[in-house]
Each structure stands twice: as structure tokens, then as C-alpha cells.
Amino acid sequence: MTIDTVRGKLFDDSASRDAPPASLPRSVPRVLAFVLALALFLVASGCGGDGDGGSPSEAASNPGGTLTADDGAEIEDTLKTWLTEGGCENMTDAFLEDQTFNDDPEEACETFENLFTEPAYSADDVIVSDITGNGDRASAVVSDDFSNVETTFQLRNEDGGWKIDSADIN
Fold first, then answer.
1. How many CB atoms neighbour CB 4 within 10 A?
2. Are 98 and 90 in contact (CB under 8 A)?
3. How far is CA 166 from CA 97, 99, 163, in A?
4. Three-state DSSP class for 161?
5. 22-65 pLDDT, tens digit each
6. Which structural domain, as residue segments, surrounds residue 29?
7. Whole-model pTM?
8. Domain of 63: which CATH number?
9. Burial zone of 136 (CB within 10 Å; 0-12 exposed, 13-18 middle, 19+ buried)
């Protein structure tokens, strides 16, 4: 899914879907486009979180499949941290390559970190739901209260921690 498609879904502007984005280069990664779109909605609505962001959600406390509450909390934390702070350590090498179009992990990480900008929303504004999984694989849905954008993330437990392996903007 490209930024054009995301913009079209967010703004329902068929002309925008056919034209290249005016302010973003074509190389901006797809999921970063989701982050930017989410930020636009949150800025436009003047939203900010009012919670402490420290306690796991109901979805994290009671994940599906064979996941434990600790797995759910770590998955939620990985997603919220990645969306609000970035960090190559929150992604598998395959997902990092998908985001940067570079198959060298060190170069890809540098590219990702250079492209990442701090969003105008906080972790409290990010809703993580439908956490489920078995063994070292999991999925979770990320959304917010302000847009109609949902993204399903696939995660993998690597080196003792959950990392984002793919994303599909719904």
C-alpha cells in the first residue's frame, strides 16, 4: 500500500490517489506514511493523551492464542514505542528492509533513523487491540480514536523480544 492509497482512504480524494504526494518523496516507507497520517489527524483534532501510558491495555492483559500477559504487554510496548520513538531494535531485518528498500541492516537502520520524525501524538493516543499469537509469532491491530485507519502488525519474537515483522494498513 502506498502513501497515495493511504491519503485516498483518509481524505477520500480520488485525485490525490492518482497524483504523487506533493510534500513527501516516493521513497517514504509505507508504514511511516501511516504514522504521518495518524499525526495529521491528532494535530488537527488537538488531541493528546490523558492516561499514564504505563499500564497494559485489556488486549495486552488478555492476549489470544498461547501468548501470556507478559507477551501481550511487550507487544503493546513494542508497537507504541516504534510508532512514537522509532528504533531499529523494534523491527526484524525483513521489516526494516521493507521500510527502507535497503537490504543492508546497518544502512537500512541509518536511513530509517534519518527519516523518522517525532510524531505530534503520544503513546496514550495509540490503541492496540486484538493481540493474538502462538509461539514466536503474533499479530495485533493498531488504531486511534480519530481516524478510520487500522493497521495489522505481524510480530516475531527474536532474541528474547518482540519485533515488528510486517504491517498491513486495513
1. 17
2. no
3. 10, 10, 9
4. strand
5. 444 444 455 555 555 555 444 443 444 433 456 789 899 989 99
6. 3-169
7. 0.70
8. 3.10.450
9. exposed
Q: Which residue has the cell 486511534?
A: 144
Q: Which three cell numbers stand for residue 148?
A: 478510520
Closest alpha carbon to 83 in 40, 59, 119, 49:
119
- Residue whose entry in the numeric block shows the C-alpha cell 477520500: 12
Distances (CA, A) of 164 to 47, 59, 114, 136: 26, 17, 19, 12
CA distances from 95 to 90, 102, 154, 156 (A): 10, 10, 10, 11
Closest C-alpha among 114, 117, 156 to residue 134: 156
Rounded to an integer, what distance in angstroms lies between the CA atom of residue 163 and that of residue 93? Answer: 9
Residue 41 · residue 125 · CB < 8 Å: no
User: How many domains, in total, are found in the chain?
Assistant: 1
